[in-house]
Amino acid sequence: MTEPVLALMGPTASGKSALAEQLAIAFEGELISVDSALVYRGLSIGAAKPDYPHHLVHIRDPAQVYTAADFAREAKDCIDDIRARGRRPILVGGSMLYFRALIQGLDDIPDIDPAIRASIEAQARVQGWPALHQQLAEVDPAAAAQLHPNHSQRICRALEVFRGTGKPLSEWQQNAEPRSAEPDPDYECIALCPEQRATLHARIERRLEGMFDAGLIDEVTALYQRGDLHTDLPAVRAVGYRQVWSFLQGEFSLPECRERVLIATRQLAKRQMTWLRSWPSLGWVLTDAQGRILPSEKTAESGGETGTATDASSAEKLWKSRIMQLMRNF
RNA sequence: GGCUCGGUGGCAGAGUGGUAAUGCAGCGGAUUGCAAAUCCGUCAACGCCGGUUCGAUUCCGACCCGAGCCU
Predict the structure, then answer these.
(1) How many CB atoms lie within 10 A of CB A151?
(2) Is ipTM > 0.95 here?
(3) How far: A313 CA to B60 C1' (Å)?
């Protein structure tokens, strides 16, 4: 069997990129970015674009919409391609739905005509989402039962799948084999994160200052002046870009803008932590206030309640131990 | 020094003689094609001391603090 793909996860500003670069060099690997903002050209400073080369960075125009499904497909191709060249693919990033789409897979639902979504959103503007939730309940009660009446995006998705395919979303999802919580042997998932929340917040704050100093405002201004971009696009909704965009429109002062970016970034980190806490079989790599990896047993592979490693191949064990060893020296 | 207005949760800000909206932040959660998105849940307050009252955050008085005006 092929060795697993290393997947390095973690909240924003946790230091993933620096570690990833070291891993890439140490393992003759190639990095694949798992980042929903970095896919867009023009998002560099505010998206913390790393200097070291990554795949799947700057591959779309900000006017386009990139999706988790696009990512899963392209990342898979990328992994195959890298392996075909005899190198090791390493995934790095914090877009957890992208990781999930790649590792756990998405159901094979056909593309939906964007016009359908547009009409649903138009309908929602006049009727409100709870009304659409009700309509969903008539055609797809299973999906509706799992969604709050205000959950705009997911109600929209369920509705557009039904209208576009004539088949309820919940049925599409039943076709696939049930998702297991078992660790996927094809991926070795590691999370890098400061042990203390306060440390992460301090890192976020420091990095944000650097972004503003490096010209974040100018970067967003360039996007703003294109004239064809708007706040409904994912690229413009990204943390930092959205707030600076509003600042450019005169909605608030620069100090308030900076404060809002800071808050939004912390909130992003929190949501990422929520994903990570329930991620199956995740190896936690905790760091101290100086960014050094803590040597305690907490850094060892977790989730091994039973002897899951007993039947692991020696190649796999070697792979793991090399990662762990490298990380101790980080 | 005098007068006026004001002091409600971390912040902003309603309100009532029977212990108090809401927004933001914080914290927790969800997450199958926009996910750095979207949504849900939740903690937490009436400056201080007396008085009136069955009962005061709400009424009265003193005091403290803040803003403004006056001398």
Answers:
(1) 14
(2) no
(3) 84
